[in-house]
Amino acid sequence: MCGIIGYLDKRGGHDRHVGKTLLSMLEALSCRGPDSAGVAVIGAPSPFWIMQVKLPEKGDLDRSATAILDYFRSHAGIVRHGVTGAYLRLEVEAPAEPAELEATLLCHFPDTEVVSLGHRLQIVKQVGSPAALEKAYAISKWHGSHGIGHTRMSTESRVDLSHSQPFWAHGVPDLATVHNGHITNYHKLRRIYEQRGYRFFTENDSEVIGIYLRERLAEGLSLPDALRSSLDDFDGSFSYLAVSADYMAYVKDSFGFKPLVVAETDDFVAIATEEIALRRALGQDFTAYEPVPGTLKIWTKAGSQKLETRDQKPETRN
């Protein structure tokens, strides 16, 4: 019983108070997920790689951060850096692609984990409530154009930072997902991907979504087509959200067991597991609806164009 949220500001620009809205939505759903909370925000584009690194859970965090910084100073240009909580945030000037940057880091520092990487994406997550997340990272002050968030109740895997959501789609810049439900063919998919050389960092079935999307993109599919194909390839009862630099989307399985509510106005698109999250953050002056099972919807930043598939007339709520 987790809570997922998404918000896209349709008014343009990268300086909207997205973090404040996401936090308010998360706080409304905190009862659904007391174990951990996290957000992924798409901010202003940077000419450098923005890398969020989870430092080793054991040992001296400052020493670990210093070792990583020393390595990158020797092999790439560090533009900015800082340590907050369990994270080392780097802005790196390097010609390497995300998968190569991540592989290089893990080769030299195997106890670390790249939580997010791209030119616009930043993810923070931690054990505890949305209030604890705000206290540690001040996400209410984050600006951007769109983002997603998650509150987690662990049902099968352990409670720690790595198993918390959102998940970055390792190797793909600026792509993240949040998920509520169960992907029941997760173990089969994981065995297939591990045989193909993909690495998993958790035992959480939600992690497979990003790896699935990464492989489908590598096969030449667009992100909208990769999202559509997941409706056929994932088994179980699930709802998940995805954000990239240009898109925000929901995907809802054909059973429709997991709740999801959507609202759209001239100013925004908002998605949440429960309507209370939409109302608390955004007021009352909009209509919300429940998507039809077996559907997805994708919004683009360019003019907030909607790309739809398998969507029938929704059930509206006034």
Task: Summarize the structure in words.
The protein has eight helices and 18 strands. It has 318 residues and is of the alpha+beta class. It folds into two domains: 3-45 and 129-317, Aminohydrolase, N-terminal nucleophile (Ntn) domain (Glutamine Phosphoribosylpyrophosphate, subunit 1, domain 1); 46-119, Alpha-Beta Plaits (2-Layer Sandwich). Helix 1 (18-28) packs across helix 8.
CATH class of the largest domain: Alpha Beta
Output the number of helix runs. Answer: 8
Instruction: Tell me the Rg in angstroms.
Output: 18 Å
Can you identify the CATH superfamily of the largest domain? Answer: Aminohydrolase, N-terminal nucleophile (Ntn) domain
Low-confidence stretches: 311-318
Approximately how much helix is present in the residues? 25-40%
**What is the H/E string?**
EHEEHEEHEEHEEEHHHEEEEHEEEE
Question: Helix/strand/pairing class, anyone?
Answer: alpha+beta
Outline: globular
Total discrete domains: 2
Could you tell me the mean pLDDT?
Answer: 89
Q: How many strands in all?
A: 18
Beginning-to-end CA distance, first to last residue: 25 Å
* Topology-level CATH name of the largest domain: Glutamine Phosphoribosylpyrophosphate, subunit 1, domain 1
Trace the largest sheet across and list its strands. 7-2-8-1-14-13-15-18
Percent of residues in β-strands: 25-35%
Quick overview of this protein structure:
The protein has 318 residues and is an alpha+beta fold.
